[in-house]
Amino acid sequence: MSQPITTSVTMDAESFQKFRSFDLFHHQKRWQRPLLFAAILLGSSGICLSQVGVREGASLLAVVLAIVALGLPAVYFYTFFRDLRTTIQKLGLPRPFYRLRLDDAGLSVWMAGEQDKPQPSHQYPWQDLHVAYRTPDAVYLYVQQTQAYLVNGEERDTVWDCLKTHLPASRLRDLR
Question: What stretches pass through the bilayer (predicted)?
Fold first, then answer.
């Protein structure tokens, strides 16, 4: 790489919400458990319906199982989005979050309030980066399974090109 890429990331409410939703539902695939729960209980409700007229209380149990099957996942998703709105309000967005530099050594991060210091808050060699995602709106750099940095400015195409030269294809996910 001839020139390091440096970008300051300011997070607004929309980009924060998109990132948190992406992280939970796409990266962590946390939608799978509520869906499996609903499928199991709806299947059980179906079995109970097949016993209506054969077993006493089968219709009542079928209705209760169906309500729980649909209600608990609905509460899970409602709680996520409610808590997300609360978090956005508490963070006082938009505001600067960090500055990133990508160079031949890897990724360097200066957190908000430390962006003028000469030494980065965190450094990650290329081999330590977990995975990178490219969406239409941003690039998500996961340095660990549960920790990521977001590039949402005009530099995202340049950052993605840099990632393609330093990371193996198995750790790049282009979702555009």
Answer: 35-54, 60-81
